[in-house]
Design goal:
Length: about 260
């Protein structure tokens, strides 16, 4: 049994996303880890996945750091300054345009765009906004109640309009990504749900899902820690109400871990 089977099936709301999915949010909310989980899980469902890394500011938390694992999972990675590509900026833009068009035209294909919510990231995303808006798409606004600068729902909501203006895209859903990595417990999940529900209410967009990480015992990829097992059982049994709970792995580690 592997970690993916322990986490269980991906929520149907994520399987039913359109073929072009943008993931963005404020610095440090966990966009990249969410994007990686979504890419791996959709690939496991038999989809042909292209992951575009436009989160070009943060030097530590990058999808490109996972290039080998993504390739092994059959996921195509497009990113600037990747050690795995010789594409220059103009050619990379063409490749990303092609990935978006391919996702729209080829059955079973999906393009996930991991974009930074800062000015540079949103501007980079804006380069592709016209093409993205030509067809069905989803723009997921990731929020995290434990992020230092967005601890109040109104603060998280207030950041979105500028991101939308700069990227030329409107958020279609909120994603709750509030957690403490391996230390996540029921109180953290409850706090995050309440926070994200309020953000979604203020913005008048639906809350798509709640990401809940499951920690494994040291040296194991298949044995949950007692705390993680208890958390999973609470959610699975509906003792802890978590609509569209998305159990995720922690792929993105701090550089000192």
């Amino acid at each position: 049994m592997n970690m993916q089977s322990i986490r269980g099936e991906i929520p149907s709301v994520l399987k039913e996303l359109p073929s072009v999915v943008v993931v963005f949010g404020h610095y440090g909310v966990g966009k990249t880890n969410f994007s990686l989980n979504l890419a791996y899980d959709l690939a496991a469902e038999g989809r042909q996945v292209t992951l575009v890394d436009l989160d070009i500011v943060n030097p530590y938390f990058r999808s490109s750091d996972h290039a080998a694992a993504l390739e092994a999972a059959g996921i195509r990675l497009l990113c600037p300054q990747s050690a795995n590509t010789a594409l220059d900026a103009p050619m990379l833009n063409v490749a990303i345009d092609s990935a978006i068009e391919e996702a729209r035209s080829e059955e079973g294909h999906v393009c996930i765009i991991d974009a930074g919510g800062d000015d540079v990231g949103a501007t980079a995303l804006g380069r592709f906004s016209k093409l993205i808006k030509q067809g069905e798409h989803a723009v997921l606004y990731v929020v995290n109640a434990l992020r230092e600068l967005t601890k109040q729902p109104q603060e998280a909501a207030d950041l979105l309009p500028e991101m939308e203006y700069t990227s030329h895209l409107r958020a279609t859903h909120v994603v709750n990504n509030t957690h403490l990595m391996d230390a996540t417990d029921e109180s953290v999940v409850k706090r995050g749900i309440e926070f994200a529900e309020e953000v979604a209410r203020i913005l008048d967009v639906p809350l798509l899902c709640t990401a809940v990480p499951l920690a494994c015992e040291a040296g194991s990829l298949s044995l949950l820690t007692p705390a993680a097992q208890q958390l999973k059982e609470s959610i699975d049994s509906a003792k802890l109400t978590c609509a569209n709970c998305y159990f995720v792995s922690i792929y993105v580690k701090k550089p000192w871990d």
